[in-house]
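[SOLVED] Need 3D model of a four-part complex

Original post:
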Amino acid sequence: MTGDHGAVADPRRRKRVTIADIAERAGVTSGAVSIAVNGKRGVSDATRARILEVAKELHWRPSHAAQTLMGKNAETIGLVLSRPEEVIGEEIFFAKFIAGVQSVLSERGYSLQLQMAADIAAEIAIHENWIADGRVDGVLVLDPRAEDPRLKVLAALGHPTIVVGGETESDTLRSVHVDNAGSMRLIMQHLFDLGHTRIAYVSGDQSFWHTQQRMDAFSAFCIDNGVWGQTIAGNFDPSLAKDATRRLLASPQPPTALVYDSDVMAIAGISTLSGLGVAVPADVSVVSWEDSTTCQVLHPTLTALNRDAVTLGKIAAAEMLQLLAHEPVEHPPVHAAIVHRESTAAPR
Amino acid sequence: MTGDHGAVADPRRRKRVTIADIAERAGVTSGAVSIAVNGKRGVSDATRARILEVAKELHWRPSHAAQTLMGKNAETIGLVLSRPEEVIGEEIFFAKFIAGVQSVLSERGYSLQLQMAADIAAEIAIHENWIADGRVDGVLVLDPRAEDPRLKVLAALGHPTIVVGGETESDTLRSVHVDNAGSMRLIMQHLFDLGHTRIAYVSGDQSFWHTQQRMDAFSAFCIDNGVWGQTIAGNFDPSLAKDATRRLLASPQPPTALVYDSDVMAIAGISTLSGLGVAVPADVSVVSWEDSTTCQVLHPTLTALNRDAVTLGKIAAAEMLQLLAHEPVEHPPVHAAIVHRESTAAPR
DNA sequence: CTGAAAGCGCTTACAG
DNA sequence: CTGAAAGCGCTTACAG
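Solution:
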């Protein structure tokens, strides 16, 4: 029982161990300690060993703040996730993508800084803060849009940037290609091979560049193959997907196959169909642009595009390290595949 | 055209504006600048105005590293998310929780640092790094377990911690209460009122403390009300939920109502039931412990426990600010409610 | 190979 | 109210 009643808990109470403490104990200067712990040449092996010994003994850890002040890199990559409400349909994608990013970064001793933003303006503000504070060495940008304001700001600041699903390139900005057109063709070919010639695509948010790419590929396939195709905007709000489904089915010439831009949209669609008494896949086939656990457990199970988001994350991280280090980093290939399940079959 | 051909892009090329630059331009010392920009007393209003003017003109931003070195708080709260694979069923919970946390933190100028960890050991390592680097002022811990190793480490380090769904309290650790027992009673009462007397609970991971609380409340309700209750471990793997569902329905005395610990598990369960030709809710009622968009679009729509995770996040953030500032912060109440949809009805 | 010193950008006593 | 200086914990030329 000491007399510190009323003392407020202070996390900083333990005085920090510094290189000066180590220097004193080891009988050298703090400069020597710095050299030793950083593995630079300038001290004898014996001295270095002794210094490292003392450092370990004292549980020394370098002061991140001091190192940053001296210009050390943050060894951190930033990623801003856009508003949760908007991305619910893509959450599985995000989780996998992040897992891939982290696995590559952590191999190299880098970490990932995540933040959520309510809108694109907030996202830009976060990037500016990160850069000004030197908290990140570079950032990853998802879901690029046409004339994306984020990219303009990042390019103007000259900050290392990787755009996932983009196309532009510069000294400080690289793009990781995402084959939206190819994926759409994969889906369409699958349906076409089954015999479908009236296909509808319930798209996602059209402000995203990838949505436009998908729509273009859809149209192109339809034209080239004589498919009667139709596109309808769905956004990420599942109730829109429901409305779209109803309208499509109410048509005098309803489609025999529906492609939904996300698994959440596909679920909304499939339950709407079941409410309308439309059998899947007997009456209508359904494909989800995103595979998830739910696709596997639903009844019927959903044919889905499996995008390998983990690999995509790995590639994005590798590209970033390459951009920062100016040296090549291994590139795994990303492959999208269509997982054929119960929700697609030949039309009657 | 300068002669910098071959120059490598360097994000730090623009020399940083410091308070010394401001001091020079304003004709004062850097000490005066520091006082002025921090709103402290010690300079005349005129001088302060001039200094702020120059600071804005020069686009000055304080060096985060230097401020941290001087002992400034990070004004950042940390949150580690456990492995994506495990939490898929809780993702909507996470997204909402994080949104709530951020809304309260940003009001006070705090930010949230997120990181994903593969397991609990990795999570502990992240916490230790954060603390050693002074990157966060405190951390939020989710999904406490019995004898949780994370809490031991954090308590030993004396680092401000808020445990969501915990019970322990100390100088540096507070718990936000989550009424798992009450929620379970809500669900059970709903089913009991409908007339169900044979109810099964497909639980989540039993290493989580909240699972134990739910199981205990389940048993207590059954005993008190003469309900024939059964608990079966489901984990977060939906295939386990499927197996559990099959086993329960194969029983000579199958339950008339099933409670699943997450929406993903409930979806797995409901599609298993439909595969077995069991009608919901005609033959069996189903409740999901977690509301989500999917619960609303599924056919039948799912009766679910709506937990108001946004508010829970707000409370956790408010508790943290309170712990750090030693002053009370407004507390919104969290309320869980059961959303009655199509999947529950009276037993035949 | 080692020591002494300057400096990163800020804050904070301490004199005037 | 203002100025000059020390110090936070590190790194890095520069002498010896």
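Edit: The first helix of chain A runs from residue 19 to 26.
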